[in-house]
Amino acid sequence: MSGAATEGKSITCVAAVAYEAGKPLTVEEITVEAPRAHEVRIKIEYTAVCHTDAYTLSGVDPEGAFPSILGHEGAGIVESVGEGVTNVKPGDHVIALYTAECQKCKFCKSGKTNLCSSVRATQGKGVMPDGTSRFKNQKGEELKHFMGCSTFSQYTVVADVSVVAVDPSAPLESICLLGCGVTTGYGAATKTANVQKGDTVAVFGAGTVGLSVIQGAKVRGASRIILVDINDQKRKYGNEFGATDFINPKSDLKDGQTIVEKLIEMTDGGLDYTFDCTGNTKVMRDALEACHKGWGTSVIIGVAAAEEEISTRPFQLVTGRVWKGSAFGGIKGRSEMGGLIEDYKKGTLKVDEFITNERPFTEINKAFEDLHAGDCLRTVLDLKK
Ligand SMILES: NC(=O)c1ccc[n+]([C@@H]2O[C@H](COP(=O)([O-])OP(=O)(O)OC[C@H]3O[C@@H](n4cnc5c(N)ncnc54)[C@H](O)[C@@H]3O)[C@@H](O)[C@H]2O)c1
Ligand SMILES: [Zn+2]
Ligand SMILES: [Zn+2]
Question: Which residues form the Enoyl reductase (ER) domain (predicted)?
Answer without folding.
Answer: 22-381
